[in-house]
Amino acid sequence: MPIDINAIFAETRGKNFELYEEHVNPVFVKVLRTLGFNRSWVRGEGAYLWDETGTRYLDFLTNWGVFNFGRRHPAIRGALQQVLDSDFPGWVGFDAPPLAATLARELVKRMPPGLDTVYFSNSGTEAIEAAIKFARAYTGRPSTTHLAKAFHGLTMGALSLNGEPSFRRGFEPMLPGSSEVKLGDLAGLEARLALGDVAAFVLEPIQGKGVNIASNEYLLGAQELCRKYGTLMICDEIQSGMGRSGRFLASQWVEGLQPDVVCLSKALSGGYIPVGATITRRAVYDSVYDTMHRAIVHASTFGMGNMAMAAGLASLAVLDDENLAERANILGDRFRSGIEAMVPRFEFLKGVRQRGLMIAVEFGPPESMSLKAAWTMVNRMDENLFAQAIVLPLLDDHHILTQVAGHAMPIIKLLPPLNISDTDVDWFLEALEDVLVKLHKFPGPAWEVLKKLGNHALTAKRREGRAATA
């Protein structure tokens, strides 16, 4: 009997959290319930989600940058439907898939000079794993260097490049030779590279955690050091690429920057089929696949599937046809000017970091005594808590999904689809203003919610402490 997916959707509506809790990840369900994210979503279209009550939400989370083109984009759906309706075989194994070759050609057209060869995988973390292996093969060196606050994925190789200790805890030891340097510290980078064992310096031109934008001077200086010491520069554009920053790649904002490897994923999927890509120079590629016996020495069973390749091709076409990279710049300026106009009015609001539609809204300690006491109280309970004072009312009161930018950061990050409207930007700006007005009233309802969340956090910390000593 054929499976009825719509029947499953109907049967599990309103029960999905209980089912997920029982059979998948109960701790994550507890987090969602605590934060009020336990909605039952029933529909997605463009920049919007609808819950079971029919309420419409703006999705400025976009699954951490997957939905650059919104949900259910008709051109991408149409390409995938063509694949489903065709008789063309996929995953033959011993084959040279034409859609993969075509997508590789289209990606190379958009790359910095010299990057002419593509390896396809199934995710961003796999793209990073491939880059690590390629760098080791090409240089004959064992080590990697990454930036503090970096995030490159959660498989073991990618985790070894993670600049947040909480992700690594419980999984040590990492890959031997992994080391960390600070963003902006060229002297520290040179000291590490000068040891002569670093195969690759891996960095995000715009860090996903905190939306920290590397300066042109730093990136060009890092490139010069990599060339000097024979280290490959790997640019992780998994979140910042595909037009997100207002250019195809965030690194393309820097004239003269020519990384040895670029990694893509997330939005390359079109929001439908996971795909990753590692783009490099032919000489690097040939150091891996150097003989006929090693022609598939690094490979993936599900890589280069017809659906994934079609999603990538359609995504590139939508990006070009709708001029979305330029649209990201225009909308990003609208966000920036609107948020900056609020800074003088609200003590907690400190500024905005933005490139295209990769945006961080930053908060910090106020000046007035009563608000300063509130700030201190909340951060004493949990240093991750304050940003929730923005995220939660945006969700509950204004129906906008956003996210905290990283661990212990009073920053919220916005990753809206690139094809949102001016009205959507104004929806967010009006909502943020309302949230800040209420947050600047202490005591008040917003602070009572934070106090409850803080007590939950303190209880959780005590439990973890008892478990660790048991």
Task: Offer a quick outline of the entry.
With 470 residues, the chain is of the alpha/beta class. The protein has 18 helices and 15 strands. Helix content is 44%, strand content 14%.
Largest sheet: 7 strands, mixed
Poorly predicted residue ranges = none
Number of strands: 15
- Structural class call reads alpha/beta
How many DSSP H or I helices? 18
Question: Averaging pLDDT over every residue, what do you get?
Answer: 93
What is the 3D shape? globular
- Helical content (DSSP H or I, runs of 4+): 40-55%
Strand content: 5-15%
Q: How many angstroms separate the termini?
A: 51 Å
* Rg over CA atoms: 23 Å
Main-sheet strand order equals 4-10-9-8-7-5-6
Features:
7-stranded mixed beta sheet; 44% helix; globular; 15 strands; 4-stranded mixed beta sheet; alpha/beta; 18 helices
Task: Walk me through this protein's architecture.
With 470 residues, the protein is an alpha/beta fold. It is 44% helix and 14% strand. The chain has 18 helices and 15 strands. A hairpin with a 2-residue loop joins strand 11 and strand 12. Helix 10 runs parallel beside helix 11 and helix 14 packs parallel to helix 17. The longest helix is centred in the last third of the chain and has 25 residues. The termini are far apart.
What layout of secondary structure does this protein have?
Elements: H1 5-12, H2 16-23, H3 26-35, E1 41-45, E2 48-51, E3 56-59, H4 62-65, H5 74-85, H6 98-109, E4 117-121, H7 124-139, E5 143-147, H8 156-159, H9 165-168, E6 178-181, H10 186-193, E7 198-203, H11 216-229, E8 232-236, E9 261-264, E10 276-280, H12 282-288, H13 306-321, H14 324-342, E11 349-355, E12 358-363, H15 369-381, H16 388-396, E13 400-401, E14 403-404, E15 411-414, H17 422-439, H18 445-469
Parallel strand pairs: 3-13, 5-6, 5-7, 7-8, 8-9
Antiparallel strand pairs: 1-2, 2-3, 4-10, 9-10, 11-12, 12-15, 14-15
Helix pairs in contact: 2-3, 5-13, 6-13, 7-12, 10-11, 14-17, 16-17
